[in-house]
């Protein structure tokens, strides 16, 4: 129990360390947007300027610039339509329905994106219900929203989270998951443990979330290196993560098939040999080595060498059908990870021992 609590605290602290730059961006950007709207634009209560900063920076982690633009423009549209109409027709239930419907209809005609339409509608609700009748006009509030959006993007550019750290943390989660699945499958073969193989399969089925989070984190990292001069020098190191993204996803998908077939093989008359478990462990260790080398900003030479050694190994003899499938999946995983190190698919495939090659006696 104490170990589990300690792991949870460590995970929370790690998450805080990753998100701390965004918190600073929100805090500093909100204050700056408020000052700019008051001092430069002359607005007495620029409520939407800091709000737009929070929206912009908050969605910036894990989303694309296009979605940030949709949010900011959607807020501006909803605020403008809502405030202008409320100043003419007043506030009330039917006015609220009219304002929201019109704001969302205009947003749909302009863009059609669900996020854009929803943001326009919610901003119109805010104006029509919480802030009607103030001295500020609709155009002023639109200007406040746009000001906050611009400052939010500037905050991401000038006070960015480390794109390399974001990508490294999330790829680490993917490769850890791959390594764990292979280790569990290897142990189930060694112990002839069907229950352990079933647990490994359940673990493998949850790994797609890690892949999706890595994909999102990689988009964020690329976005930061694009808009922030402070991190332009990170582009070469980040390119290695881009190279690894698709092959690592494929490796994890093949690992799920491998574990499923391992479970089936343990129920056959001739279970898979322990030599397969050894090969699985070597691939698992190579995945962790790939993780370490990429995190260090190096070309993953050692991981590539380890994978080539596994790929060149001869296959065991006299295997059942399921064991043959396991070997095929393990070969595919090795090729996927070789591609993740930067090797071309054809070259990685040629490194495998030919399937029709005579086996050693």
**CATH architecture annotation name of the largest domain:** Up-down Bundle
How many domain modules?
Answer: 2
Ranges where pLDDT stays below 50 over 5 or more residues in a row are: 356-361
Task: Report the CATH topology name of the largest domain.
Answer: Methane Monooxygenase Hydroxylase, Chain G, domain 1
Whole-angstrom Rg: 27 Å
CATH class of the largest domain: Mainly Alpha
SS content category: mainly alpha
Order of helices and strands: HHHHHHHHHHHHHH
Ends: how far apart?
A: 50 Å
What's the number of extended β-strand segments? 0
Please estimate the helix content: over 70%
The number of helical runs is: 14
Q: Determine the strand fraction and express it as a percent band.
A: under 5%
Pfam families: FUSC_2
Domain Integral membrane bound transporter: 33-154
Keywords: Membrane, Transmembrane, Transmembrane helix
InterPro entries: Memb_transporter_dom (IPR049453)
């Amino acid at each position: 129990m104490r170990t589990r609590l300690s792991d949870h605290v460590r995970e929370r602290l790690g998450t805080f360390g990753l998100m701390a730059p965004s918190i600073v961006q929100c805090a500093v950007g909100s204050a700056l947007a408020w000052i700019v709207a008051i001092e430069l634009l002359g607005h007495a209560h620029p409520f939407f300027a800091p709000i737009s900063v929070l929206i912009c920076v908050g969605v910036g982690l894990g989303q694309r610039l296009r979605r940030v633009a949709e949010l900011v423009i959607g807020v501006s549209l909803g605020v403008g339509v809502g405030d202008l109409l409320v100043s003419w027709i007043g506030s009330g239930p039917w006015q609220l329905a009219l304002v929201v419907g019109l704001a969302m209809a205009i947003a749909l005609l302009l863009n059609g994106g669900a996020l854009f339409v929803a943001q326009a509608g919610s901003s119109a609700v805010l104006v029509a219900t919480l802030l009607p009748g103030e001295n500020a006009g609709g155009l002023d509030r639109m200007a406040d929203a746009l000001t906050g959006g611009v400052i939010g993007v500037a905050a991401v550019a000038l006070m960015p989270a480390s794109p390399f750290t974001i990508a490294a943390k999330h790829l680490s989660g993917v490769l850890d998951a791959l390594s764990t699945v292979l280790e569990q499958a290897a142990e189930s073969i060694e112990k002839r443990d069907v229950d352990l193989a079933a647990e490994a399969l359940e673990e493998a089925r949850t790994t797609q979330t890690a892949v999706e989070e890595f994909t999102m984190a990689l988009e964020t990292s690329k976005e930061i290196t694009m808009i922030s001069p402070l991190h332009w020098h990170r582009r070469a190191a980040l390119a290695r993560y881009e190279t690894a993204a698709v092959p690592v996803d494929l490796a994890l998908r093949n690992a799920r098939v491998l574990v499923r077939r391992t479970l089936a093989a343990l129920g056959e008359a001739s279970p898979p040999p322990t030599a397969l478990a050894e090969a699985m462990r070597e691939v698992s260790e190579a995945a962790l080595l790939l993780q370490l080398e990429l995190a260090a900003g190096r070309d993953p030479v050692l991981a590539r060498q380890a994978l080539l050694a596994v790929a060149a190994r001869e296959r065991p003899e006299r295997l059942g059908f399921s064991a043959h499938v396991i070997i095929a999946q393990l070969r595919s995983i090795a090729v996927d990870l070789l591609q993740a190190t930067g090797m071309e698919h054809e070259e990685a495939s040629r490194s495998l021992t030919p399937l029709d090659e005579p086996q050693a006696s």
